[in-house]
Amino acid sequence: MIVPGDPILTAAQMRAAEGRLIAAGSSVGELMERAGAGIAEWVHRLAAGSDVLILCGPGNNGGDGYVAARLLAGRGMAVRVAALAEPRTDAAAQARARWNGPVEPFSDAIAAGSAVFVDAVFGTGLSRPLDPTVARKIEALAPSARLAIAVDVPSFLNSDTGENLGSDAVTPFDVTLALGALKPAHVLHPGASRCGAVRVVDIGLDRADIPASVARTSTPSIAKPQPSTHKYSRGMVAVVGGPMHGASELAALSAYRAGAGYVLLLTGGLPHPPHAIVRQRWSADALADERIGAVVVGPGLGRDDRAREKLDVALATAHPLVIDGDALHLLDPGRLHARQAPTVLTPHAGEFAALFGEEEGSKIVRAQAAARRSNAVLVFKGADTVIASPDGRANVLPAATPWLSVAGTGDVLAGAIGAMLAQANHAPFEAASAGTWLHATAANMLNRCFLADELADALPYALERAHG
């Protein structure tokens, strides 16, 4: 079962973790037995007595499949095994030798099909495109089976990036059994949409020995107001507006809904509900109030000289900043290195490319590199959202509802992060993670077609869920 906060390991990190287990006295065969036992337990539980077909590849992923087949047959289940090729590792060869049943040719097994299909062909570490003939055969089984289960990662995914490797199939697996730890493909699209429900199989890794720099986002720690709390201690957020008043209004409203105690909207718009938002016209000293806990600049700002002047003023202050929307198009990331106060950038893919260029690597790797380059916390938005810190830490948000793809939801996110950043108990990385979690949780609670205004109104309910 996936636990919020679970670490996410690349193929190299996973090999290193397994290497430490082997150095401590475990053998590759023992790790394979543990993996196979975990796979067998899940398949036995989910198959509900149906016949099972396990496709085994030539590497250790295939070896895990042979072990699972042997253990399932020992439980009295009808199990068939098909092999893509002869085992190429000693441990996989030993696992096959211990399987007492027949091994079918790959093509024959594909033609016969099965109620339950287990893909143990290729796992973590595959980086080259899959042979098109092999890919098509594997793809043919997933939609025809009642239950399709992948071992570690579906065989046509790059485990480090989530990219498809020579496969155009759209039918997802029902379940993916991640061996030892989550991999980037389980949380980054398009891979995440192909994995189905992801469950982690324990193979004996010491969690204290697993690098925790990249993890799945956990429920944030957000303090409730105490009897001594007042509006400024709950956080004062200033939103720098521009000609598109609706965007800055949404950011201001969401800052309030996410728990800020005082929201100042610096815009030329006319007052209207909610009247709790304090509206003032912009001036060069508008951000001089030392009680301001965070400034949100960008939603509705515009991209003209007037907008650039406002951004320059915000950058020159000692206030923590959330830079979003239009301001990202006016920003030179190099300027942020001189800032002593925390800065959070919230780009989507187009804004990220404009700021940092077309970087190589997974979305996690690119976000981490951009955070280091800009000396700012990055919230790299999208169907999968990565929050990265200059110190190398990263959180990956589980997929939120696709109904978020509507105008104004980014403005709501900027305001929610601003509210978290304004609170004294939140460092910038934690504030960005908390605000992003609230935003996604509110959207998932609505779970239907909604307006950005309604998303802002749902933030208090997400906040209550965070309070437990």
Sequence-ordered SSE layout with sheet pairings:
Elements: H1 11-23, H2 28-47, E1 52-56, H3 60-74, E2 79-83, H4 90-97, E3 103-105, H5 106-112, E4 116-120, H6 132-144, E5 147-151, E6 175-179, H7 191-195, E7 197-201, E8 214-216, E9 236-240, H8 245-257, E10 262-266, E11 278-280, E12 294-297, H9 305-316, E13 321-323, H10 326-330, E14 343-345, H11 349-356, H12 363-374, E15 377-380, E16 385-388, E17 394-397, H13 409-422, H14 428-446, H15 452-467
Parallel strand pairs: 1-2, 1-4, 2-3, 4-5, 5-6, 6-7, 8-17, 9-10, 9-12, 10-11, 12-13, 13-14, 14-15
Antiparallel strand pairs: 15-16, 16-17
Helix pairs in contact: 2-3, 2-4, 3-4, 8-13, 8-15, 13-14, 13-15, 14-15
How would you characterize this protein structure?
The structure is a single chain. Strand 12, helix 9 and strand 13 form a beta-alpha-beta unit. 54% of the residues are buried. This protein has a 10-stranded mixed sheet with strand order 8-17-16-15-14-13-12-9-10-11, with helices on both faces. It has a 7-stranded parallel sheet with strand order 3-2-1-4-5-6-7, with helices on both faces. It has 2 domains: 11-212, Rossmann fold; 236-467, Ribokinase (UDP-N-acetylmuramoyl-L-alanine:D-glutamate ligase). It has helices at residues 11-23, 28-47, 60-74, 90-97, 106-112, 132-144, 191-195, 245-257, 305-316, 326-330, 349-356, 363-374, 409-422, 428-446, 452-467; strands at residues 52-56, 79-83, 103-105, 116-120, 147-151, 175-179, 197-201, 214-216, 236-240, 262-266, 278-280, 294-297, 321-323, 343-345, 377-380, 385-388, 394-397. Helix 2 crosses helix 3 and helix 8 runs parallel beside helix 15. It has 15 helices and 17 strands. It has 468 residues and is an alpha/beta fold. InterPro entries: Carbohydrate_kinase_pred_CS (IPR017953), CARKD (IPR000631), Nnr (IPR030677), Ribokinase-like (IPR029056), YjeF_N_dom (IPR004443), YjeF_N_dom_sf (IPR036652). Its cofactor is Mg(2+); K(+).
